[in-house]
Queue: 2 jobs
Job 1
Amino acid sequence: MIQDDIRTLEADACARIGAAATLEQLEAIRVEALGRKGVLAQISKEMGKLAPEERAQAGKLLNAAKQLLEEAFERRKREFDESRLAARLDAEWLDLTLPAPGPRPGSLHPITQIQMEIEDLFVSLGFMVLDGPEVETEYHNFDALNIPRDHPARDAQDTFWLTDGNLLRTHTSPVQVRGMERFRPPLRMIAPGRVFRNESVDASHEHTFYQIEGMMIDHDVSVAHLLYFMKTLLREVFRRDVSLRLRPGFFPFVEPGFELDVQCFICGGAGCPVCKQSGWVEQLGCGLVNPNVLRTSGIDPEQWSGFAFGLGLTRLVMMRYGVEDIRLLQSGDLRFLRQF
Amino acid sequence: MKFSYNWLREYVDGLDISPAKLETLITMKTAECEGIEEVGAYLGEACAARVEAVEPIANSHNVKARVETGPSGAKTVVCGAPNCRVGVVTVYVPLGRKVIQGIESDGMLASGAELGINRDDSAIIEIQNQASLDRCKPDSVIEIDNKSINHRPDLWGHFGMAREVAAISRQNLRDPVKLDLLPAGPAPVKIEIADFDLCPRFSAIVFENVKIAPSPLWLQYRLSAIGLNPINNIVDLTNSIMAELAQPMHAYDRDKLTGSTIFVRAAKAGERMMALNDEEYTLKPSNLVIADAAGPIGIAGVIGGQGTAISDQTTNVVFESANFHAASVRRTSMAIKLRTDASMRFEKAQDPVNTVRGLARVVELMREVSPGARLVGGLGDQKRDLPALPQVELSVDWVARKLGRAVGVAEIRDILESLGFGVRENGPKALVVTIPSWRATKDISLKDDLVEEVGRMVGYDSIVPQAPAVLDTVPPQDDSRAFHREARAMFTAQGFTEVHNYSFVSDDLARKFGFDPDDHVRVANPIASDQNLLRMSLVPEIYGNITENRKHFERFRLFEIGREIHKRPHGLPLEVTHLVASIYSKEEGSADLFELKRAAECLMPGAEACPTAARAYEHPARSAEILWRGERVGRIFELHPNLVDGRAALLDLDLDLVQKLRPRVKTYTPLRRYPSSQFDLSVIAGIRELAADLRTKVKDFAGDLLESIEYLRQYSGPPLQENTKSVSFRLTVGSPERTLSSDEVGAIRARIIEGMRGLGYELRV
Ligand SMILES: [Zn+2]
């Protein structure tokens, strides 16, 4: 009976599927049972010889067997896939405590970092950032800044003179002059950069250091405006509220000129060794732009007034991080620079 | 500059501000104070004492002395001074009892140095009586930072500072000068000034019957307190008037002068003078001298000569009180490398009105320091016309506009008058201010200078910070700043740490890197002989960074962005911003050079390296120029192995040029609608043929339909012949208008193969 054959085949194939040890064996069994030339196909062919009602019954049986076997194959195949994947995943075990290859980010020079901070602050307040040459003319470095011919600052012990008669700028202030020459007021500008003083180098003195210069020219710029910007600047730089005081200070390119002190953070103004018991730490020089400086650059001091300030970036870095030796900043020593 | 509080008080009636408070007020309103020194502490309780009896102490150079102190009675003290003998009147200081060498000593007998009166610590001080100590009281000495009074000639004397103190404390100022003491009549010494620009005024008086002796104690003490060394009555007198009025003075022994004329003239070339400091100076015509008929007797404004100096035998004295051109004194002082108390004051541009004021003080004080001395003849006073006192118009509104706070007209007037300015009202809220002579020499000429006077006296702490109006335009920003930031960010992200190096190099270092020292801009006054050139390249100092850091690290990456400075025939040198980056590794290999090349490509997509003749410091087989957008923008190379152990790859880029070449705007091309095709080709070539050259050749044969050509790999070894290699490329071809047929793709491929074969290359396909 064909029905018996089907049942026998089904039982036999199920047993063999369960017993298949490899995916290849399983495939062979599948081809043998379900392939185009497989046993079920043979039986299907033979069914043509049966009577119609018998054929219908046998057909049902055959389809059921085929479905059952296909499901059994799938199930078994899935078992194989799963265990193969599990084996692969296990083999792919990684020691994630190993270090990752490739370089780590380097760091920017601490002076660059503080310079960027201050630039960003002033840009947000509507200032331009200007640049000027490191080799300057005597005119831009001194004359145009109302620094007289016989002023001590021009002496060889303060200024690096070049054999061509020019000099290495002693401050960033000449960029003020260049700014006034290039742009007309109203004008808000800062100028960061490298400056030079002819000074022997030791732990607290350098012949090369960094400054940032600022200037604002408008109608009616006053000491009150200067105070506003200085307070904003120092609050951002020190990331805390600051108490300031202005006191007289003399710089030929400003009038009146000021020294600006910040109340000592260490002692809160009570007096300590850091502030030499005064409660205040000298921070920067500033003032209202001297009318002679405006006039020299073709700006009418009756119409316009301005303030200017100069801040030492090198000193700021030393204060912020407690750097004890100024020479480290230009040493190129990565043991130092990588800390920033 | 040191200021005695007691001395200042002599000119300010009723000053009741403590020294500490005064120090702060002076700092806030006038000049920076650097601290207070207490002097003469023992003088508070010191009194005159007569030594009544002296007994030796066994095995000691000390003696046991009994002294009579007057009000405090008799005391027994142990004293080691050689002049502790019966009858001496000295100074007793009650210090409490203590046992010295078994003897109870109740207080001490003091030396001049211990009391702070002078520098004599060799003996106990000998005085006449209690009255000798009358003006010797404990004092506070306020030290002012000299730099903060450079612009204020008047503050180099106590009277000038007292004027500030009077204005600060709103007290009256008492002028010690009595001009009517100046003698009338013909001057006994003739004065001849060659150039009134260099010497606007020279005044002199003459005394006879002078007796050289130590100064009274109060005068010695006053000078000691401010750091001057008491010498004798005449020298101390001139020093004290200098410290009082800021007017330097000089005293000559009249009997040592040759002739009866004093000349103020340029030195003759090679003229010599032995100065008071025992140095001989050889002078030049740019030095102004005071001379008699025989030659120089003083270097004007700097120092006097030894030949005419006051000695113990002097009886006739010429007092000089002159005014010299500030810059001339300064230049001479610099040239002969000698700064004195006099030259420091003259450098600030002293007031010519002051010369005779100083002499009036001489007349007054000589009565006390040399009682028998007599004036000879009248005042000698050569001068050009004193300049008229300048006047400056000042409006109340101008003050308010500059300070950012209003100050009333009455307050402005009050402040200016207290500082010695003349003030006249010139309509509502308008003033005409007369500048006093002592502020007119260089200090004050503008209305803004007066704003400062008002501002500092009302106090800058009374000004409230005020934000300005917001701008209605965005200020232009500098492209290079943004680009340098981008470059910095890119290099730090790839592991490079930023360094800063000096702008200076030495001749040797320049030569080592193939530069001619003479091509550099030179420093005329270098701080050290190895820092005399301005760098034309950042590489030499980066090399220094490498050799230093390799002592601590096996591998590292660093970079600098800085300026090369190049000489130009005219004007300022050319400053070019460069970026130099380096990767150092102790291990052998070439990977770092490619890492560096990759970093360069990140900054300049599509940049190429073109092998070039190596420079002396470069590895001869590992050096290339970097080309980008048709320009040579820099070099990439390994340092020559002779220069460094391990491998140091360097990249040197002209950042200014790179920035100029950067595309300003980004452009968009629509995506291709038709699929492209890819195939690989391997070219067999000589082992040292450049991959970039092969790529160009393949590309040229590929024609217009080539979309891209990508280097895959290279291989050498079996089965290839020796000294050959196979370089593989992946080509992508396509058309924006249609999909290429396989025949078309095949034709491109065949054309390349045929073309390359024509050039003599075998292809592995
Ligand atoms: Zn403190």
Job 2
Amino acid sequence: MRAAPTQDEVRRQNLGALLRWVHLHGATSRAELTSLLGLNRSTIGALTADLAAARLVAEDTPKGLRRAGRPSLVVRPQSASVYAYAVSIEVDRLRAARVGLGGVVLDRRELPRPRGVQILETVAPLAGFVREMHRRVPAGAIYVGGGVSVAGMVRREDGLVRLSPHIGWVDEPIGIALAAELGGDQPMTVGNHADVAALAEHARGAAAGCDNVLYLYGDVGIGGGIIAGGRRVTGHGGYGGEVGHMVVNPHGKPCGCGSRGCWETEIGEAALLTAAGRAGATGRDAILAVVDAAERGDTTARNALRQVGDWLGFGVANLVNIFNPEAVLFGGTLRDVYLAAAAHVRSRLNEMALPATREHVRLRTPALGDDATLIGAAELAFERLLADPLDAAGSPVPPPR
Amino acid sequence: MAVRPLLEVRGVDKSFGAVQVLRDVAMNVFPGEVTALVGDNGAGKSTLVKCISGIYPIDAGQVVFDGRPVTVSSPKDAAALGIEVVYQDLALCDNLDIVSNMFLGREKRSGIALDEATMEQMAHRTLASLSVRSVSLRQPAASLSGGERQTIAIAKAVLWNSRVVILDEPTAALGVAQTAQVLELVRRLADNGLGVVLISHNMNDVFAVSDRITALYLGRTAAQVRTSEVTHSQVVELITVGYTGSIGLLPDPGSYEGMGGRS
Ligand SMILES: Nc1ncnc2c1ncn2[C@@H]1O[C@H](COP(=O)(O)OP(=O)(O)O)[C@@H](O)[C@H]1O
Ligand SMILES: [Mg+2]
Ligand SMILES: [Zn+2]
């Protein structure tokens, strides 16, 4: 039998629950918190006082309608002064942001990434962004850590990124390299793009309130972020969710991973552009140009979207049968492909998936758009704060100014 | 699902003179869902919407709102119930800003005089609830793109706690990027709990955001189906010939009674 939790543990848990609530849902009155968290009024008062003393939340008298009696104080996250750094390493661009508690992007920087720029070469410009933003941080602000979202497979243990350029697999310690360049005291937490975007959409986006979510992210390849029973599924080493390498066509095209007929060889950027007669083109604008051409009646573009939409539905059907998600989100360029080819995606899904798994599944595009990876990367850092608000708040040392 | 339809159209007939345009039409609209209303040109989609919104009186049948039979004899009646229609020709005043446009013609209807600050706050809250961030409240309508105009027209429709929003071909005149944004907005309306009716000819739009599809064929309801139960080609058949397999208005004229409107 487990020992009963100590008073300290209970308090830590309650502090985390309260802070998490306002972090995810914004300003909330004490009265609402009392019923939402199932704690009594004086406990909420004490927890709020502790969090306010740590400058993680603030309390206001509600504006607007005055009713009779004393209004319940509103507790809001200190979004302007409690912050994390978020870095997003994408195929075509590099982004960094300062994100406030509550998921508010306070500052951001962006740079195109020419294809072929190696991942460790991105460290210097990204660290430059962070230093630049750091000079504008108001005095007394609280740094809670940094998170990195990267288009690659990430080892959970240490944030090592495995990449598959055409020469073979290479391992890159991006989290450690960034931290070293920045001179902070902790490595930044690293997550795979689709995992991180899934985390953000689950926390405060199109999948809020859903415990079983499949997030599909498209760029050159196809990534998958899976949330099952409310938890991220990343597998033994952190490498799980690589749905882009699910083999859908054993007689298909060779894949960059060394296998053949992987899902991304049928629905990735190159598959659509090649089918549309635009082999060699790359990037989101090229995808949008195909959608635009199809809309204007270009038969080749239409057929390409139909074919890719069909394969998209094929893979989603398999995944829906396995995971029975409430929501499937199409992110990155898959958003544009889904919206422009939904009739084909849905038709294939409806033909292949079991009635029980498909009847309630919601097909959605992300609510946070391109910000999902930044907000999700920051979420990786906020996780530590939320686990133990009063401890973590003081601990990580921000990059020097 | 045990949820009751928010809006039910039952057995509606409508003629213009000798021409019968709607015959025994049925359609159910559920809260939190997008119902796509599809049909060829001239099938009667716009006429049905005008019957629901009080522009045309119906000859027979019933409109049931929230479980109660209602008589909607003017757009004012429809608005009082919380039924709003967004038409394709977007009636925004170019020289007015977004806030003024959102309240244009509405202040009087509600009978309360609102100050600028309250109007701005309400407009802001509505746009925020729809995650619309691309426009500023004091921007004149003349400076908006087609997609933004559509967005503001939709926001105007939901400003006053509407419960059913009907959109007649909202993406027909838009480019690719703006179509995507409007589709996402249509989906968000339903995800916020409204009952949404989307009229569209574009099957990708229909399959991208709808939960159910009502197909009209020559003024009759060919079928009401769940989007998770049909394929693209089945919906095309419902639109072009009125049936597909055993679903819809069967070709034998003696046997179609009772098939139409089955959900
Ligand atoms: N005011 C009207 N007077 C006479 N006929 C009309 C009128 N409005 C529509 N119709 C006819 O009703 C039919 C259905 O039209 P409509 O509802 O506009 O179809 P849809 O919107 O599906 O294209 C068409 O044949 C049209 O010509
Ligand atoms: Mg019409
Ligand atoms: Zn592969």
